[in-house]
């Protein structure tokens, strides 16, 4: 798994969101890194500065948990029946001093924190809440100081189904702050300063369906800088989604994460990503990779990708390193979803490192050694052994054995670029639709410029009715073809019908 833009190498409680102006989180140890002063963003889910307070007294029938008794929470969970509510008194709660000590909820348990209730792993315990019990609820807790291993998580470690996590601060942990199961509700939380991800939505036994991520502040995650430690791992960012079928990602403030803000990687489907503010992330605001059918709308996307975009430009990499990156992903009517396209509309992208790139790696398909998705195949092929010669050279396998960037519709967006704000001279001003020249493996039926021609002119990808402010350029087919707006709109590409261009913006 992982991105292939590195050059050319092969019942829910109703949620009341507090929407306030941006000022950033106050935490200094792992919060936002400094950026030039900018105008305030639109209203955002500012959760970390003003978290909601839990009940000051134990609700009727709740079991009180004492912070002065180490292990009291886990012990009382074991000794009480399913559907018990636990109320954690104010103070710092601890587990037993064993790395595997954790709370294992029973079906339907609820855990409520009083004001000031903290569950602290003291850099000793790996997991806070685990097990497979469904329908567990966490509210008003702070969970911190746990040391989950790489690719594992602290809360809902075993990806149990139907959990509700609301008004909770999950911060300063190793690994992922939380994992996700099917029908999980993640609402109005502060997910801050975790070592790898805020959210790792992965369920090995699958399927992971019906995920809601709403009104959270996701800030300063990937403090371990895993992409530098394991180059090309594709294992970093604010939130990562794997094989999720049906997700609503809305109203979140995703900012100042090291790496990408939101990253959907490998056989995700039916995403709605809407009304989020994505800003000041070191990498792309959003990556949608080897996945299907999504609506990306009404998001504000500002000042993303300055660190990673500049890093690769300084290395001489000519790839159009984008802030919204659609990689081997497209609309597919045969995969059931609320849409049969990837539709990107009514977003505002302002002063990011480049805009939107649609990319397809000609060498990446089922059974190819260049497929970085850990042996995964597309959702269109049941018997993956068929994706080999000679059958792969003929339809339907020729089309179905590869993830295709197709049926992507980019319209009614506003793209603003002022190079004096981004502080760049070149390579930060690109919109792109392209592929590489297919060469590998030697039995590949996709060699040459076949895929580049298809993504550019044959797979129904189009831009139209957008507004551009600034010195935008357009890359088509391969990185060597850089067009001005009039060439982009003219034959043979004929993109951006009904769009307007204003050459203002520092260059």
Concise synopsis of the structure shown:
By secondary structure, this protein is mainly beta.
Note down, in words, how this protein is organized.
By secondary structure, the protein is mostly beta strands. The chain has a single domain (44-502), classed as Pectate Lyase C-like (3 Solenoid). The chain is 8% helix and 29% strand. The protein contains 7 helices and 39 strands. The strands form 4 sheets. Strands 3-4-6-8-11-14-17-20-23-26-29-32-35 form a 13-stranded parallel sheet, covered by helices on one side. α1 (72-79) links the parallel β3 and β4. The chain is globular. The two termini are 37 Å apart. Mean pLDDT is 91; it is low at 1-34 and 36-40.
Low-confidence stretches: 1-34, 36-40
- Helical proportion? under 10%
Mean pLDDT: 91
State the separation between the terminal residues, measured CA to CA: 37 Å
CATH top-level class: Mainly Beta
Sheet with most strands: 13 strands, parallel
What is the CATH architecture assignment?
Answer: 3 Solenoid
CATH topology: Pectate Lyase C-like
List the strand order in the largest sheet: 3-4-6-8-11-14-17-20-23-26-29-32-35
Helix/strand/pairing category = mainly beta
- Tell me the domain tally: 1
Proportion of residues in β-strands: 25-35%
Specify Rg, calculated over alpha carbons.
23 Å
DSSP E strands, number: 39
Q: What is the 3D shape?
A: globular
Total of helices: 7
Organism: Streptomyces flavalbus
Domain Carbohydrate-binding/sugar hydrolysis: 159-313
Biased composition (Low complexity): 51-67
Pfam family, one: Beta_helix
């Amino acid at each position: 798994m992982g991105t292939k833009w590195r050059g050319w190498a092969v019942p829910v409680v109703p949620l009341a969101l507090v929407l306030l102006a941006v000022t950033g989180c106050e935490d200094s140890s792992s919060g936002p890194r400094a950026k030039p002063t900018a105008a305030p963003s639109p209203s955002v889910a500012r959760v970390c500065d003003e978290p909601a307070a839990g009940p000051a007294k134990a609700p009727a029938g709740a079991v009180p948990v004492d912070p002065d008794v180490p292990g009291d929470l886990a012990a009382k969970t074991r000794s009480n029946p399913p559907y018990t509510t636990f109320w954690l008194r104010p103070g710092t709660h601890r587990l037993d001093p064993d790395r595997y000590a954790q709370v294992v909820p029973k079906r339907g348990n609820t855990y409520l924190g009083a004001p000031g209730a903290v569950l602290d792993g003291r850099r000793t315990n790996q997991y806070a809440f685990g097990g497979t019990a469904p329908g567990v609820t966490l509210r008003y807790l702070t969970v911190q100081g746990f040391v989950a291993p790489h690719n594992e998580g602290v809360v809902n470690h075993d990806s149990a189904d139907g959990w509700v996590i609301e008004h909770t601060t999950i911060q300063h942990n190793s690994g992922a702050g939380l994992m996700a199961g099917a029908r999980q509700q993640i609402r109005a939380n502060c997910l801050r300063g975790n070592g790898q991800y805020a959210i790792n939505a992965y369920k090995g036994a699958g399927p992971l369906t019906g995920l809601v991520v709403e009104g959270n502040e996701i800030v300063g995650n990937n403090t371990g800088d895993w992409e530098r430690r394991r180059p090309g791992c594709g294992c970093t960012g604010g939130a990562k989604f794997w094989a999720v079928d049906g997700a609503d990602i809305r109203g979140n403030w995703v900012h100042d994460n090291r790496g990408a803000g939101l990253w959907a990687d490998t056989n995700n489907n039916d995403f709605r990503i809407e009304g989020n503010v994505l800003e000041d992330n070191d990498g792309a605001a959003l990556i949608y990779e080897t996945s299907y059918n999504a609506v990306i709308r009404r998001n504000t996307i500002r000042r993303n990708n300055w660190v990673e975009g500049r890093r690769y430009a300084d290395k001489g990499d000519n790839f159009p390193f984008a802030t919204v990156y659609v990689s081997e992903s497209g609309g597919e009517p045969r995969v059931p979803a609320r849409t049969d396209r990837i539709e990107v509309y009514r977003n505002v992208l302002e002063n990011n490192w480049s805009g939107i790139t649609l990319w397809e790696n000609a060498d990446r398909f089922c059974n190819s050694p260049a497929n970085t998705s850990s042996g995964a195949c597309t959702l269109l092929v049941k018997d993956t052994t068929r994706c080999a010669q000679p059958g792969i050279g003929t339809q339907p396998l020729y089309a179905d054995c590869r993830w295709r960037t197709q049926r992507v519709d980019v319209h009614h967006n506003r793209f603003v670029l002022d190079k004096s704000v981004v502080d760049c001279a070149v390579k930060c001003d690109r919109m792109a639709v392209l592929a590489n020249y297919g060469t590998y493996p030697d039995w590949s039926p996709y060699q040459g410029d076949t895929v580049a021609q298809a993504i550019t002119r044959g797979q129904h990808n189009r831009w139209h009715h957008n507004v551009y402010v600034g010195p935008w350029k357009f890359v088509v087919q391969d990185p060597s073809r850089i067009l001005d707006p009039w060439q982009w709109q003219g034959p043979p590409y004929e993109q951006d019908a009904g769009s307007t261009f204003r050459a203002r913006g520092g260059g």
